[in-house]
Design a protein that fits this description.
By secondary structure, this protein is mostly helical. The protein has helices at 4-42, 50-57, 66-99, 112-130, 138-161, 169-193, 196-206, 215-231, 236-242, 246-251, 256-278, 284-296, 300-324, 333-351, and strands at 162-163, 166-167. The chain is built from 14 helices and 2 strands, in the order H-H-H-H-H-E-E-H-H-H-H-H-H-H-H-H. Helix 1 packs antiparallel against helix 3, helix 5 (138-161) packs antiparallel against helix 6 and helix 8 packs antiparallel against helix 11 (256-278). It is globular and about 60 Å long.
């Protein structure tokens, strides 16, 4: 065929050139993540220089100074949590968009965030009166309740969406909407039942906060968030095939039902743990994949890890702004991400509404 050899050579050169670009892009994002984390550790009521931050992070000193204590016990857990939650929410959002072949998909679409929120709100409002939470340590009450609620909501959605052994994405969307509606009604009822003391804690948790978790909570939640972040890139090839359609992916050797189950389980683990520790933080899993896709395209070999890194960066920046913008009062980070992410996403939709990406 005339020109076929030239076309094959051009394709090979493009693939060969793409790999260094992918590595360079991820390397730049990794360096930016490190720089943002160090800067965030130094920003606060008492500014700390990058040199002091590095000195506090290096072990083997004579004894901890007040600056070391402030960094290691107050700021570092918060920055680490922001990195993990941002990476988990952004990457699971990218995976959900591929799984449903819908650029508007988000981890909350399966009802995980709403289920976790309902369980945590119930723990705040009803825990003491029912007495069942008195045996638990106070620092684990909300994380455990939120995680259980997220897992239960996801299990219900998965059960409702399976028919004859096949998970149907369209049915799952409807089941997730139903779970979100029921959970929202339950949260509204509990808000009316809450007293003034519980109401402040309840509202602050619902709109997201990174300031209520320490090293003990991070240690048990880290595997649940990091396992999906590390595993999902292994599914990049299958997710790329799924973008062509379920039938086409099946012809390429992808077991679509098993892929859907694996991805959903990973999404549930990551989002449940994130919401259990920080409350509901919206738009990270929705906007970040679009930002990355504008630069890298739809290839999930690069999209998934790049979304994790950019999500970590953006959540660290957002949390730094939330805790310093009107200090000593702290803004709920969920409100901040909604105020910035919502208008941006609307502009993104208006710009690309006629493109194939959003069709």
């Amino acid at each position: 065929v005339p020109g076929s050899g030239s076309g094959y050579a051009n394709s090979t050169r493009k693939m060969t050139a793409y790999r260094p670009f992918r590595l360079r892009f991820l390397f730049v994002l990794a360096l930016l993540t490190l720089a943002v984390a160090v800067c965030a550790l130094g920003i606060g009521p008492t500014p700390i220089s990058p040199a002091q931050v590095w000195a506090a992070l290096i072990p083997g000193q004579q004894g901890p100074s007040p600056v070391d204590v402030a960094i290691l016990q107050l700021r570092l857990p918060r920055v680490v949590l922001a990195l993990m939650v941002g990476a988990a929410l952004a990457q699971t959002g990218s995976a959900m968009q591929a799984l449903f072949r819908n650029p508007l998909a988000d981890p909350s679409i399966v009802g995980v965030s709403a289920g976790a929120a309902l369980a945590a709100v119930a723990a705040i409002v009803l825990g003491d009166s029912l007495g069942w939470m008195q045996s638990l340590s106070a620092q684990f009450e909300l994380p455990l309740a939120g995680f259980a609620g997220g897992i239960l909501a996801a299990w219900l959605v998965m059960r409702l969406s399976r028919h004859e052994g096949v998970t149907r994405p369209s049915t799952m969307l409807l089941a997730g909407m139903a779970i979100n509606a029921v959970a929202g009604a339950g949260i509204g009822l509990l808000i009316h039942m809450a007293d003034s003391t519980a109401l402040r804690s309840l509202m602050f948790w619902m709109y997201g906060s990174l300031g209520k978790s320490g090293w003990s909570e991070i240690l048990w939640a880290a595997p649940l968030m990091l396992l999906p972040v590390l595993w999902l890139p292994r599914e990049a090839g299958a997710l790329n095939a799924l973008l062509l359609g379920e039938a086409e992916a099946g012809h390429l050797g992808v077991d679509v039902p098993r892929l859907q189950r694996r991805v959903l389980v990973l999404v549930v683990l990551a989002v449940s743990a994130s919401v259990a520790l920080t409350g509901i933080i919206g738009f990270v899993g929705l906007v970040v994949p679009h930002l990355v896709r504008l630069k890298t395209g739809p290839d999930h070999r690069l999209l998934l890890p790049a979304s994790a890194l950019l999500g970590a960066i953006l959540l660290v920046v957002a949390d730094t702004i939330a805790r310093t913008a009107i200090a000593p009062v702290e803004l709920p980070i969920g409100i901040l991400t909604a105020l910035t992410g919502g208008p941006f996403f609307l502009l993104l939709m208006l710009r690309y509404r006629n493109s194939a990406e959003l069709s």
